[in-house]
Amino acid sequence: MVYKSFRINFIIRIIVLSATIFLLFYLVAKKSLYFTASLTFIAIIYQVYEIIRYVEKTNRLLKNFLESIRYSDFTRNFQVQGLGSSFDKLQESFNAVITDFQKIRAEKEEHYFYLQTVIQHIGISLIAFHRDGKVEMINNASKKLFQISNLKMIQDLKSFSPDLVDSLLSLKHGENTLIKVNDNDDILQLAVYATEFKINNRQVILVSIKNIQYELEEQEIESWQKLIRVLTHEIMNSITPISSLSTTLTTILDDFGENNTNRFEEEDLETLNEVKMALETIHKRSSGLLHFVDTYRNLTKIPKPNFSIFQVQKLFDNIHRLMEEEIRRNGIECEISINPESIELSADEQLIEQVLINLIKNSIHALEHSENPKIELKAYMNSRGRISIQVNDNGQGIIKEVLDKVFIPFFTTKPKGSGIGLSLSKQILRLHGGTITAHSVPDERTSFTLTF
Question: In terms of pTM, does the model score above 0.70?
Answer without folding.
Answer: no
